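Anyone else keep sequences and structure tokens together like this?

Example one:
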Amino acid sequence: MKEISPVTRRKFLDLLTLLGGSLALSSCGRVSDPEMEKPKPEPVPAHYPQIRLGEETILILIYPGFTAIDALGPEYILSGMMGAKVRLVSKDGKPVTCETGYQVVPHFTFRNCPAKPTLLVVPGGTSGTLDAMADRETLQFLREVGGAADMAGSVCTGSLLLGAAGLLHGYKATSHWQTRDLLPLVGAIPSDERVVFDRNRVTGAGVTAGLDFALRLVQHYRGDFYAKGMELLAQYDPHPPFPGGGDPKTADPEVVALLNEMHKPFVDLCAETIQQNKLTPI
């Protein structure tokens, strides 16, 4: 077995400590964060010139019934950007119950979160997303903070919520494959791409696309090398048991038909809720 040199080992441990520390600090629960507006990037050894620091302020909305992986998958990846502050925000700051029943504790409320973040991310859901689209305070928050953000983005059906707040009018966007055709209701131009960047908007397709979405954002903010590092650290190398089964164009037609039949009431309710509650575009 080839012996690892002390220098190589030291570099590896330095980098692992930096990345691990960044993730641990950014992924914790509610914290006292008076320095939110003044991020303090962790020092990086000079022998890692590819590791670019930043000072991004990233907010991820959570609301009752949100799909956990839509928010927490991107949260993990984005938290790997050293110097970035990734925080969860909810209406009132109380623990929020996700779609599958467990609770997540936010860092901020609508009232005390940073008013102009670098990035605002909106996760999707089912009935919870319908309720959020019907909630005027949530739509107004998205309109104000998402509109002020350098970039606003979404995962899965979160694009419908972002669009209902008036933030996708005239933008190319994507959504979960079952709700993608509803995007014109909010003035968006539907795309079947997995991740769509259009000016200061970025949208991801359904559920697991949130990981691709987040890695593309790391690439956007920190470059290819850093994004490659996060992809490897997360061991993101999916090997689905049914290749092609995650795309309606290549999946078993019988499975596609069944899911469409099962979820038609939800899709219809989405259309109705958007029509009744959407805000004027900005």
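And example two:
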Amino acid sequence: MNFIYTVFGWPLGWIMYACYLIVKNYGLALILFTLITKALQLPLAIKQQKSMMKTAIFKPQMDALQRKYKNNKEKLNEEMMKLYEKEHYNPMSGCLPSLISFPILFGMIDVIYKPITHIIRPGSEIIQKATEILTSLGMNTGNTMASQISVINAIQANPAPWSELDADFISKAQAMDFSFLGVNLAATPTLTPNGQPMSVYLPLLLVPILSGITSLLISIQSQRQNKATMGDAAGGGMMKGMMYFMPLFSLWFAFQVPAGVGMYWLLSNVLTMAQTAVLHKKYDPTEAVEAARAAEEAEKEREREERRLLKEKKAQGKQLDEKENEKAMSAKELNAKKIAEARRRMAEKYGDVYTEDEE
């Protein structure tokens, strides 16, 4: 796992380093870092919301297919894929933001555990030498992930044993302050005080608790929005299970890592709730469904109007044909009369007897 943390921690470490250079405060740098990472994920969040909106629009078609092929799963999957292709929809696109959040979390663990590597940034020789001094002082607990935090704490407590290291490094380590709003972001929360003063223990304890609570609020928010959009399909057993799994995971996880990671998780959850509310209002699936229904009804009305006009046109055409026939018949009769009159005059002229039958 250390390798995975390091891989994702390298790019995020540069972001955290830039944030620290700007604000010169570890806690504020963490807040700025969270804002930046959430901003980078915003396009994916928008895509996810649009995907949800699109799913809601053609959900009636999906329901119809499920009813039609409920006893033929193979045919159902085939027809579903055709529908997805027709609608240009990728069912996995909505999962991307959730998948992206985990690499960021893994990278954040590396950034918090390694403030020397990512914030002070001395050469690798100094980091190695500092670890050796920590071991020689009997202060290395064997937790390689936490060794850099232990080095900084030891230097701040007594800089004398570290004098052989670079003076600039010692100065930066002494200036590093992990405290923010009464919380030591480099310390790991525990269920019991373990000899810590209440002023230290309680603020630390709040970090995982608030992390779990905000994660639960996100799950509730998501469940309500999905139910309003997708109906009872959004309230399945698996969805309900995930609703409680993530908050419990957040609570447990925040007790395993420094409070800085839990604080990032907490801040990220708060931003996610605000972002979700805004995007849901802008790309409201319910409104999209109503608009699609209105457009469909308007199209049906247009088709009905076209059929009505075509029917009227045919009726008018039939009437015109009858009038034309009447005109044609009238002309024919007139011609017949003219011919009969001419024949009568010819008969009179030559002394013949003219009768109507001669027509």
